[in-house]
Specification:
Elements lengths: L6 H11 L4 H7 L4 H9 L6 H10 L4 H10 L17 H14 L4 E4 L5 E4 L1 H11 L10 H6 L11 H19 L2 H12 L3 H6 L13 E5 L2 E10 L7 H4 L2 E7 L2 H24 L1
Antiparallel strand pairs: 1-2, 1-5, 3-4, 4-5
Helix pairs in contact: 2-3, 4-5, 9-10
């Protein structure tokens, strides 16, 4: 009997999710359609190498590749380390370097579900300007902060445009990793007021700028920012594969000046401390 958690069911589920026929998957994985059919029926047990080959062909994230191995009766291949682990020290140094180089402009490190893992001073300054002081150690989900009605939305002038594209990106994440956690995040975002109606609308005009900016406004200060998102190349650890570095850049001189102004007191304090030493 094939159960939902069995290898045959998981393989068929992922194949269909990737919109592949058995023949297409077989050709991409360099095997026969008959073999794929037997695997999905549970008539043939896959080798460890075949499971890994299918994972690669189906473009499964490392976490899901491990799950497919376990379903087939094999030990996981990919480790999931804590970001504070000694083995990841060079990665932490690299992340710290990236965040520092982005100053005075914001940069954050987030996981696959937009939980904040690390932020530079520019990011803290922007968030505290918009929503007030942050509680030390408080868990922050940037997706909720952006989409919910009572956090960043009151100050985000083009909220509907930004949320339209952002929620679509979360939909793509949910399709890519197929996890209940990402699906739950998507459903939570869709449950917020006006979100479903917003993303159902089709843009009726062309873009006014080469990139979509986030236009914040509060107390006479306006910030216009665009972002880039980077990932680690060729990650061999689940934690690292799921990390993203989002950097914010000013779209105009006023935004650039605001961040430099916020950074000035910190620079003066640092210089005074250096002289005291």
């Amino acid at each position: 009997m094939v159960t939902a958690s069995s290898f045959p069911a998981r393989l068929a589920w992922w194949r269909k999710r990737r919109c592949l026929s058995q023949l297409q998957l077989a050709m991409a994985a360099a095997c026969s359609q008959r073999h794929i059919s037997f695997l999905e029926l549970g008539r043939t047990k896959p080798s460890r190498e075949m499971v890994l080959r299918l994972s690669t062909t189906l473009d499964l994230p490392l976490r899901q590749s491990n799950e497919l191995l376990l379903a087939a009766g094999y030990a996981p291949v990919w480790a999931e380390s804590d970001l504070s682990a000694q083995a990841l020290a060079p990665i932490r140094e690299a992340l710290n370097y990236i965040l520092a180089q982005q100053e005075p402009f914001p940069a954050v490190v987030i996981d696959r579900r937009w939980n904040l893992r690390q932020a530079n001073k520019g990011a803290v300054a922007m968030v505290e300007f918009l929503v007030g002081p942050l509680q030390p150690g408080a868990a922050i989900n940037l997706a909720d902060a952006l989409v919910a009605p009572d956090v960043l939305r009151p100050h985000l002038m083009n909220w509907s445009d930004v949320v339209h594209y952002f929620v679509r990106s979360v939909e793509a994440d949910a399709a890519a990793d197929g996890t209940p956690e990402t699906a739950a995040l998507l459903e939570r975002l869709l449950s917020y007021e006006d979100v479903r109606a917003t993303i159902s609308q089709v843009p009726t005009r062309g873009a006014d700028a080469p990139v979509l900016t986030m236009h914040f406004k509060k107390a006479g200060t306006e910030l216009r920012l665009f972002t880039t998102i980077a990932t680690l190349g060729t990650p061999q650890d689940i934690t690292l594969q799921e990390l993203r570095i989002e950097s914010f850049f000013p779209m105009d001189s006023a935004t650039r000046a605001a961040f430099r102004k916020w950074a000035a007191p910190a620079k003066k304090a640092l210089a005074a401390d250096s002289r005291a030493r």
